[in-house]
Automatic annotation (TrEMBL):
Organism: Alkalilimnicola ehrlichii (strain ATCC BAA-1101 / DSM 17681 / MLHE-1)
Gene name tied to this protein: trpB
Cofactor list: pyridoxal 5'-phosphate
Highest taxon listed in the record's lineage: Bacteria
NCBIfam families linked: PRK12391.1 (NF009057), trpB_rel (TIGR01415)
Organism classification: Bacteria, Pseudomonadati, Pseudomonadota, Gammaproteobacteria, Chromatiales
Region Disordered, residue ranges: 179-201
Protein name per the record: Tryptophan synthase beta chain
Pathway connected to this protein: Amino-acid biosynthesis; L-tryptophan biosynthesis; L-tryptophan from chorismate: step 5/5
Length: 451
């Protein structure tokens, strides 16, 4: 066995991010303000630095990565591309399975790729503090790390149920100097209103976003940072796909199909957009986002304008959505429990360039355990969604007696998710489909806009 791991030298960390917008068949719809009109860059200046606002709407295909950001990325990049030979053997499949492993970052997922860029641009603009939200804690820990690297204070509104259930993610954020506040909290109007309604509220990602945005908008020294969904976040994540393309080339292979778990769409965009440029140029390949059946944003949501948070403080985005008042069922892949999705991923899915499928919770853990027992790495429950899809594809290749090259992102490791594995082993995890009535209610509550 040779060439199981393909490492690149540091000099191969990309020097540019790839912006997919010029290669989209339909450009993304503009973000809308409360008056239903497209928002201007100036309206975003209360919470974002100029460089980020520019990236959000740029039509440049290649955007240079500033040297201090590239230097920060060298702490863990380039990440390895690994051929999952032991998984292939266990499945007795003729398919070749490759994965790009993002769990090598200090926070254990792909999220620091954007966190360091966002911290850099904010520090450069003279900002002293960042606010953000976190669900399971992966984004919060990534931003705490990045804030520390670029000299910014970071306040993290953490969904209360996760704050209580995932004490070690909180310790991690505090170790990197972050301040962690359970949400809903008394620090903001949005939080106080939520607590007045329900003092025992578990919180939600949408609520934590409302709190973080409200605070950032009300203070001149403070900006807001988001870990997924927005165009600039997906842009920063394209280092994943750019490296992976180079690594596949070294392996002498090219994927027939690429899978990634999909929450807000940042690791989907990260690995898939650089390949999408080839697809746009006529190459035959499938790009498939994988989401939970209990939070089926792309596969069952509405393609409509909606808010990014629960209170309606963010601009409206044209995206697939389960409704901004979505209350997530308690599944364990916390990072995939968001009501909306990236506008770029949504538009590309709507246009048939990207595909999507949903998988059930127990099937993802089953695939995650198989992966841990063959390849050794214990995957994050989010990442196990992509593993499930890759395993199904490899089994299909065996049944059809056909070769196939499969690539997926292993977006993170699961070392902070072991209680979820415990519950899986104890047979306590349930498979839930998102109720159709809830989809109908969500539709009725969407903001009314033309378009
Ligand atoms: C946050 C997270 C995801 C989902 O977020 P995307 O923006 O859709 O990538 C997936 N995997 C891991 C490990 C995460 O931390």
């Amino acid at each position: 066995m040779s060439d199981t791991k393909i490492y690149l030298p540091e000099s191969d960390i990309p020097r540019h991010w790839y912006n997919v917008i010029p290669d989209m068949p339909t450009p993304p719809q503009p973000y809308l303000g409360p008056d239903g009109k497209p928002i201007t860059g100036a309206a975003m200046e209360a919470i974002f630095p100029p460089a980020i606002i520019e990236q959000e709407t740029s039509s440049e295909r290649w955007i240079p990565i500033p040297e201090p950001v590239r230097e920060a990325l060298t702490l863990w990049r380039p990440s390895p591309l690994i051929r999952a030979r032991r998984l292939e053997q266990a499945l007795n499949t003729p398919a070749k399975i490759y994965f790009k492993y993002e769990g090598v970052s200090p926070a254990g997922s792909h999220k620091p790729n954007s966190a360091v860029a966002q911290a850099y641009y904010n520090a450069e603009a003279g900002i002293k503090r960042l606010t953000t939200e976190t669900g399971a804690g992966q984004w919060g820990s990534s931003l705490a790390l990045a804030g520390q690297m670029f000299g910014l204070d970071v306040r993290i509104y953490m969904v209360r149920i996760s704050y209580e259930q995932k004490p070690y993610r909180r310790s991690m954020m505090e170790t990197w100097g972050g301040e962690v506040i359970p949400s809903p909290s008394n620090h903001t109007q949005a939080g106080r209103d939520a607590l007045a309604q329900d003092p025992d509220s578990n919180g939600s990602l949408g609520m934590a976003i409302s709190e973080a945005v409200e605070e950032a908008a009300s203070r001149g020294d403070t900006n807001y940072a988001l870990g997924s969904v927005l165009n600039h976040v997906l842009l920063h994540q394209t280092v994943i796909g750019l490296e992976a393309k180079r690594q596949m080339e070294i392996a002498g292979d090219y994927p027939d199909v690429v899978f990634a778990p999909c929450g807000g769409g940042s690791n989907v965009g990260g690995i898939m957009f650089p390949f999408l440029a080839d697809k746009a140029a006529g190459r035959d390949l499938r790009l498939v986002a994988v989401e939970p059946a209990s939070c089926p944003t792309l596969t069952r949501g509405h393609f409509a304008y909606d808010y990014g948070d629960s209170v309606g403080l963010t601009p409206m985005m044209k995206m697939y959505t389960l409704g901004h008042d979505f209350m997530p069922p308690g599944i364990h892949a916390g990072g995939l429990r968001y009501h909306g999705d990236s506008a770029l991923v949504s538009q590309l899915y709507h246009d048939g360039v990207l595909e999507a499928r949903s998988v059930h919770q127990t099937a993802t853990f089953q695939a995650g355990v198989l992966f841990a027992r063959t390849q050794g790495i214990i995957p994050a429950p989010e990442s196990a969604h992509a593993i499930r899809a890759a395993v199904d594809e490899a089994v299909q290749a065996r049944e059809e007696g056909r070769e196939r090259t499969i690539l997926f992102t292993l977006s993170g490791h699961g070392h902070f998710d072991m209680s979820a594995y415990d519950r899986y082993f104890a047979g306590e995890l349930e498979d839930m489909d998102y109720p159709t009535e809830a989809l109908e209610t969500a539709k009725a509550n969407l903001p009314k806009v033309e378009g």
